[in-house]
Structures are given as structure tokens and as C-alpha cells.
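Homework help board

Subject: predicted structure for assignment chain

Our instructor gave us this sequence and asked us to write out the predicted structure in C-alpha cell form, then describe one feature. I got the C-alpha cells but I'm not sure how to describe them. Can anyone check?
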Amino acid sequence: MTIFRHVVVVFNHGKNLRKYSDYNIEEIWMKHIVFGVCLTALQLVSAAPGHAQRNDQSTGAEADEGSFGQIIVTARRQSESILDVPDTIQAFSSDQIEQADVRSINNLHELVPNFQIVEAQQPGVALINIRGIGQARNGEAPIAVIVDGVQQNSSYQITQDLFDVERIEVLKGPQGSLYGRNAIGGAVNIVTRAPGDEFEGMAEATYASGDEIRARASLSLPLTDSVGFRVSGSYINRDGQIENSTLGENVDFNENTSVRAVLHAEPSPFVTIDLRGSYSDQKAGASYYVSGLANAPRDPVVGNLLGVATRELADLSLRAEFDLGGTTLTSVSAYSWLQSGLFEELDWVELDLLAATQNLDNKAFSQEVRLSSDNDAARLRWTLGLYYLHINRDLDTAIFLQPDLSGVGVPIPLPPTLSTDSNDAYAAFGQLVYDVTDEIELTLGLRYDIDDRNQVDRNPLVPGAPAEFDASFNSLQPKVSLAYSFPNDSLIYMTVAKGFRSGGFNANDVVTRQYGAEELWNYEAGFKAVMANRSVILNGAIFYTEISDRQYYGLDLSAGPNQFIANPIPESHIWGLEVELLAQPMDGLNLSVAGGLLDSKIDTYDLSVFANTLANGDFTGNELNQTPGYTLNAAAQYAFALGSGELLTRFSVSGSGGDYYWEINNEDRRKAVWTADARMTYTFGNISLTAFVNNLFNERHDIEFVPFEFSAVITGADIGAANPPRQFGATARITF
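My C-alpha cell output:
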């Protein structure tokens, strides 16, 4: 009766929607549907009987590993069922990753509600928005990305190719108490496959439209009883599908080679060592923007310069665990190196006007030491740790006047910008998890971050000493969570947490040389309901977020097109809902639906920040930019025996819409966008054959749009970039 009652409510509201525009009809329908499902779920959870014994984590982990909808995760630095974590978290096993064809973090928006990511300018320059917490271009990402226990220290690292992955965990809301300064909106924890006890391997080849060739392989070798080695690699070579009609070339080309090696050793029963290294080399098309209004067609590209971007990544990490008897000491040391290059035009028309180059060199070392309890079934579980990070970054940027403008036949460089940044970050953190009763669990987390930054700017064309700037940012980030467990493994919880994103420096002081840190408080209540004899799992959360000094990207025109990050929004807030439904109505059939609602508002606005730009105005009361009113992800997957093998079919759809504005002036609204993918895999023995189509209905839409007043394009036009067109492909895979 509960579900029927909410359906009737939605229907009655729907009868009165004819007076609204198409945008409003769509938005209101989606809000009522998601809200009705959340209310239904809350009633179902509250109706469950109480007073259950806490599951023994040591045995429960083994039992839950193969249960429907349950994955063992390490989001809280301990192994536990995802249903026991009092946070909004989605996790995907290795099988789910393969079935959904997740090949980078970019694909997560197809699976995770209120998660948006755009990588249009160049590889590594990804703009992420999670629950309305966005990323300023050239600034720090709002999520912490952790690969095998090592946090990626640059936003250029987070969109690298994913291969040979064991598990992906996506946590929503501030996660700074365990993961640090840049986990203001959440964290993505990626766990790659470790060496096994037996010889095993895999080889895979894919061909897809756009003359795309992919190859992947992995090999696991047990060297001795206590030493194992695993090596894996990935190769992509794509000609592309988006044409530049002026040059007669495709602009979305991509060639990427990646390799990873892992050495696992257990020299004694009390010591475990993991040595990991990886390397990636990528060359891809970049900055293929097209002039035109929001939601206008973006094919073909007409610029007369072919944008090219390169990215090289290398990292090495050493993880050592020592069993001290009742406690575990963990040390994680990591070094990473990154080089990125970009050549792009700045007018995006057929004329030779402006072009730019940018080169980045980034080196980082980090050290984390943790001491934790080793009994996950104990009433009190705890973790204490120290963290250190050192980063050196060199950034060179140059703008060129092209021949048609100069009249001399060669590009003329404007004064370049040369900057050297160094960053020393220190942190102490801890977390306590205490079972107040068999049903009630209390979690207390606390982290203190100190972020010291230094920047030196040089201009080779201007004599004199370089300009040097120093600043220190610090923040105390608490987290409190209270959870109540029901006997059927259902859970309700409440969480209060603080998030922090460090400030930094701009390359010029026309607007502001230094921008401040961004902080927020998140208040959240959620549930995880296990129903219908464990064949249905329903998760949901409602949250309210208060944001202080939101970081925002802008351009100043008073002394040329100067990029900057500032804090023009002292106060803003977001409220939202999220719901996830997993169902297994019959053997072989898996259904999933996940949806989210967001409503944001700029409460106070600093008029002085954009005073000398075309974006000047009072935006108080507007919605935050690039924050969709709703997101929805759904998938149906069915596996059944066919002949001597198994056929698995999968259809998925994802979309977003509502009040999605590209900028804070709220003048350019993105249309609702929907994309669908279909896959079919036949497995017989150790061989599998897959046919797939991405963007089944060839839906085209803007993945990035920048109006002129925020872009400073010399031609005075708005620019945007489109999503890839429909793609067909086939994959052959063999395991041994």
C-alpha cells in the first residue's frame, strides 16, 4: 500500500503540470519520483524489527563476498561489508567493472548519481562536480582519488586509464578525516588486482568505430611460496570520430600506453610488503571547441589548428604492514612524476589569430604512517596516522599571435608566464569506531591539515628579481556518525562532517594573487535496507551542505585575458536526495536504478571579484553552476545458459537535467541529456566474445560550454564541446 500511495501522489501532481514548460514538467516529475521512492524506503526500513547482534566482521566478510548487492570494501581503512558502512557509498567489483565497461573515472557518471565529470580541454584537465561541489579549472579537484592506498596529488592524474582493477569505491560527502584536504566532496578508492597464489593471465583485444584499437593483458606469477608478481598493461589507439572540416582530420584521436607491475612478499608471518610501479604515455586531441549558443550543434569542428596534448605519468609506491600483536603498523611511501604538454588555438575559427602552449612538470613524494587495531570484530576499532606530502611544480604558459594577425609569417610570442610552485602538507588524523550497543555504532573522526605553499613567478622578457609568495592554510576536520543496525542487515545513520580544500596562488595579481581555502559542513541522514529475502537492496540519503568561500574560475579582461581562481561566493548551500535500488527478481537478472536531486543557492556574493570583467553582476540568489537538478542511472542485466556457454546481455541508460546552468549568471541552461549503452557477452570455457554499442541513440549534447563573458574568446563568441557520437565495437577475451 505504501508504494501505491506514493505513486498516486506523483500521478495527482502530474495532472497539474500541463501549465509548465517542458523543462519544468521533466524536472518536477523526476523530483517527485525520486522523493517518493525515498519516502517509501524510509518507511520500509523503519518497519523492520530491531535488536540484532552485530555481525562478526571476520566471518561476515567471507559470507558477504558472494551475496547479492554486497561487496567487501576498505573505505574506513578496514575490511567490512558495504552495508555496514554509515556513509553514502557505491562500490563495483571487478566483474561489475567489466560488465559496465568502466575504463576511467570519466565513466562513473553513468553509474553514480550526482557525479559529473568533463574532460574536454585536454587529458587530465577534468572538471568534476560531485553533489554540487565543483572544481575550478586549474584548481584542486573536490574528490580524493586513492589508488592502492596512495592519494593522487594532481588533478592531472585522476583520469588515467583503469585496467586490471579489483574494486572501485565511491564515497559521497566530506571524507577528510581519513583522506585529507581534497576530499571535500568525496573520495574514489581504486584497488587494483594483487598477485595470486596460482599462475593466471588474461589477454583482450577490442576494435570499435573511429578506427579504435584496444588491447589489455595481465599475468600473475607466484615466484615462491611467499613472493608473487603481477604485471598488466593497456594500449589504446583511436583515429577519432569528430571531424575538423577545415583541416580534414579527426580531432578526438588518442594513443595511450600504460603498464603496471606489483611485487607482493610475505618475508615472515608478521610482515607484508607490496612494491608497485606504473607508467603511462598518452597523446590525444585537445581543445576542440566550436562557437555557438548553448545546446547548439558542435559538428564539425572548424578551427584551423589541431589541438594536441601529451601526458606522461610514472609512480612508485612501497607499502609495508607489520603485525605487532593486537595492532597493525602500516607505512605507505610513494613518489610520482608527471609531465603534461598542450598546444591549442584560442579563437576556434578558421582564421590564424591566437594560439597557446602550456607545459607542466610535477614531482611529488608522500609518506603515510598508520597504527590501527587489527580485530575488526572488536567493540572498539581505531586508526591513528600521520601524513606528509611534498610537491614541486613548474608551469610554463605562452600565448602566440598567429601569422595572419602579425603579418610577418611566423607566430609572435606574447610575454610568457613561468611559475614554480612548492607545496608541503602535514596532517595528523584518527578515527574511532565504537559499538555503543549491539545495534548502535558511533564513529568519531578528526584530521588536522597544514598546507604550506610557495610560488615563484618569472617573466624572461621583464628584467628584475622574480616575484615570490608564501601562504599557509590549515583546517581541523571533524566527522561524527551514528548508525543503528537492524537484524536483517539494514542500517540507518546520521553524519556530520567538515570538508576542506586548500587555497593557492594565481599567475598574476590583476584580480587577486592569492585565493583562499574553501570549507563546508555537510549534514546527512541515510539508510540501507535489505528486503525480500535479500533479493532487494535499497539505499538512500538526504543531505544539506553549507559552503564557505567557494572557489571559482574566472577571466579578467582589464589587462588582457588573465585566468584566475577567486572566492566570489562567501556563502552558498546545497540540499539533495540520493537513492539506489538493486534488485535480483530471478536467477540471472540484475536490475539497478540510482537517482539524485540537487537544489543549490548562492546566499551571498562579492561584487568586487568580477568588477573588471564582462561577467560583472550581482548573482545573489542564483543557482551554483554545473549542478544538475537531477541525475538518473539505470541498468538491466540478464545472464542465461546458451549452448555450452553463457550469454549475458546488458542495457543501461544515464541522464541529467533540471536546473543545470553553465555559469553562475544562470543565463545559459543545458538541456536534459540522456545516453544509452548496450552490450552482449557470450562466454564459453575461458573465452568470451562481446559486442557493444555506446551512445546507442547517437544523442549529442554539450559536455562543456563557456559563454564569452566567462571565456574571453577573442572572436567574442560562446564556445562548447560535444560528447562522442555513437560507437560500435567488439571484444575478444581469453583467460588462462
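Reply (TA_rk): Your C-alpha cells look well-formed. For the description, you could write something like this. Residues 22-46 form the longest helix (25 residues). That's the kind of observation they're looking for.
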